[in-house]
Amino acid sequence: MKDGKEFAIAEIPVGKLNALVKNLMLQMNTADPSEAVRLINSGERVVSKPTCNWREQDGVIYLSVTSDGTTGPEWIKRLEKKSFRLSDYAKGIFRSSGFKPTKGVKYEIVILKGLLFEDNDRITKNIRAEADKRKLDKPNAEVTCLIRENFSDKDIEAMGLTWIVTMHEPIKDSDGALGLLDTDCGADGSGLDACYDSPGIRWDRERGFAFAVSQVSA
């Protein structure tokens, strides 16, 4: 039996240790290896068996997120600190007076997958009409940030999506154009972008469209 005081990682190859720390960095959404290790050692983050915090039924994704009062400018700092890429258009919406945060609101989110619509019918007007039929509401724009922070690129890809557009009330960006915030895990990396809102815009099949079922005080 080995002495319990023996250096625990003495026989673990450096390459495997490096891979471990990189995996922790990914799970913690940080580019700083020391911060990833600190979060584990301090008990702020706990390594546990992954659980799926969303479900899918008939081409519809169901998940929930809860707001914490973070303002638009605060979201910019918070997300960039976690190495998420934010476009200038998205930052324009975050800085707009139209971005109104809430605190302690639990959002039950329904994401309509693009595959529910034929390619020629996948336009904003038809997507919102389908949401109306399902008695879904426009979510708060902050839902985009909460989805981005709580669901990794791997989660979103497992949903069969590359982008999730939050179908909130359109907000003017820095150019004065009405936009919708968009969770992005495409070729440019993990981030948030903004899309133009127009009834006739045709969307990609790989997009999902987030609406709200209800708001419950947490």
Keywords:
single chain; 218 residues; alpha+beta; 2 domains; nine-stranded mixed sheet; 30% helix; globular
Describe the protein:
With 218 residues, the protein is of the alpha+beta class. It has helices spanning 14-28, 33-41, 72-81, 88-94, 124-133, 143-150, 153-158; strands at 55-57, 60-68, 85-86, 103-113, 163-166, 171-172, 178-184, 191-196, 207-217. Strands 1, 2, 3, 4, 5, 6, 7, 8 and 9 form a 9-stranded mixed sheet that branches. Strand 7 and strand 8 form a beta hairpin. The model has no long low-confidence stretch (mean pLDDT 88).
Structure, briefly:
This protein is of the alpha+beta class and 218 residues long. The protein has helices at residues 14-28, 33-41, 72-81, 88-94, 124-133, 143-150, 153-158, and strands spanning 55-57, 60-68, 85-86, 103-113, 163-166, 171-172, 178-184, 191-196, 207-217.
Element pattern in H and E:
HHEEHEHEHHHEEEEE
Mean pLDDT: 88
The main sheet comes to:
9 strands, mixed
Helix content: 25-40%
